[in-house]
Design brief:
16% helix, alpha+beta, 205 residues, 3 helices, L,D-transpeptidase catalytic domain-like
């Protein structure tokens, strides 16, 4: 009897048990929130046990008329869906705009940036004068509010000022506390970044 398949199967079971997984249609998708070094920056591991299970990255059944590759943001449920073929979607937990900073509509991903520079908009600086020091831009890093990746949303050829971006504040996922941007765990925005193409449709509702 060839024991290799059994060893491979047991190894897979052990790996998914450690990392946390979602089973969809007989396939297993494992979301990793381990520490990772990227472009010289060492992202810390996410204490995933403290992140509610529904906000962890997972494949889910999702019926929509939108084509695969579309991003749909459900601000009420605090979920972002990346539409996949055959009625599936990759779902991510998100943080959304706090009261008075909510928005909705349709936009396009005009640019993608790894380890982006963050420039606080003028209205934010007026609200928080201490941010004036970053008027010329805050350099990339582990404490940068845009995190490891950013997707820039445009509408009608104009910058909306809104982004889909990472955040070092993992505890803010599932909450309404941003200035309107949609934030994801750094490990999740890196996953989403690799899936989304420039020009992709983004629906925020």
């Amino acid at each position: 009897m060839d024991i290799k398949p059994l060893l491979l199967a047991s190894g897979m079971i052990a790996a998914t048990a450690l990392a946390g997984c979602s089973t969809v249609g007989g396939s297993v998708y494992t979301a990793s929130y381990a520490s990772i070094t990227d472009a010289g920056y060492k992202l810390p591991a996410i204490p995933v046990s403290k992140v509610p299970e529904q906000y962890r990255r997972q494949i889910v059944s999702y019926e929509t008329k939108e084509k695969p590759g579309t991003v749909i943001v459900d601000t009420t449920s605090k979920f972002l869906y990346f539409v996949m073929p055959e009625g599936k979607a990759m779902r991510y937990g998100i943080g959304v705009g706090k009261e008075g900073f909510e928005w909705s509509g349709t936009a396009r991903v005009a640019m993608k940036r790894e380890w982006p520079v963050w420039t606080p908009p003028a209205p934010m600086i007026r609200r928080r004068p201490e941010l004036a020091v970053y008027r010329g831009g805050m350099q990339p890093g582990l404490q940068n509010p845009l995190g490891a990746r950013a997707l820039y949303l445009y509408k009608g050829g104009r910058d909306t000022g809104y982004r889909l971006h990472g955040t070092p504040e993992w505890w803010s996922i599932g909450k309404a506390m941003s200035s309107g941007c949609i934030r994801l765990l750094n490990q999740d925005i890196m996953d989403l970044y690799d899936r989304v193409e420039v020009g992709a449709k983004v629906i925020v509702k």
